[in-house]
Design brief:
The protein has about 120 residues and is an alpha/beta fold. It is about 40% helix and about 20% strand. It contains five helices and four strands. The protein has helices at about 20-30, 40-50, 70-80, 95-100, 105-119; strands spanning about 10-15, 35-40, 55-60, 85. The longest helix is centred in the N-terminal third of the chain and has 13 residues, at about 20-30.
Length: about 120
């Protein structure tokens, strides 16, 4: 899962929707990085434990952000040097279903994050 033999920068994508994981992986790979896409926070933590060279975490929120508090605290405590980028407006009371109608994650914006943190 970690691709240790490959020296490309790695981006961890955590999202429960296969379509989003696939789309984000395509953007990451277009930018010359290795995408590691997983379904949930538990799988994401397992990847982080096995890979010491994750450059960026893209995290899809599909519940109110307060539901991810323990996950976010763990990432900040154990992996403080790895930026965590929320995919969407993860405000305390909104869910991704409510956000998707008024938030567009553009290719250019995502590419900008990858370029900033992975090059």
């Amino acid at each position: 899962m970690c691709f240790k033999e490959n020296k490309m920068k790695k981006v961890l994508i955590i999202d429960n929707k296969e379509g989003w994981r696939s789309a984000f992986s395509g953007v990451i790979e277009d930018e010359g990085c290795r995408a590691i896409a997983v379904h949930n926070e538990t799988e994401g933590v397992n990847v982080l434990k096995s890979c010491d060279d994750i450059a960026l975490i893209l995290f899809g929120c599909n519940k109110p952000i307060k539901d991810y508090e323990s996950f976010i605290k763990l990432i900040n405590a154990k992996y403080p040097s790895v930026p965590l980028v929320y995919l969407g407006d993860c405000s305390p009371e909104r869910t991704m279903a409510e956000i998707v109608t008024d938030t567009v994650i553009s290719y250019e914006k995502l590419s900008g994050f990858v370029e900033k943190y992975c090059r």
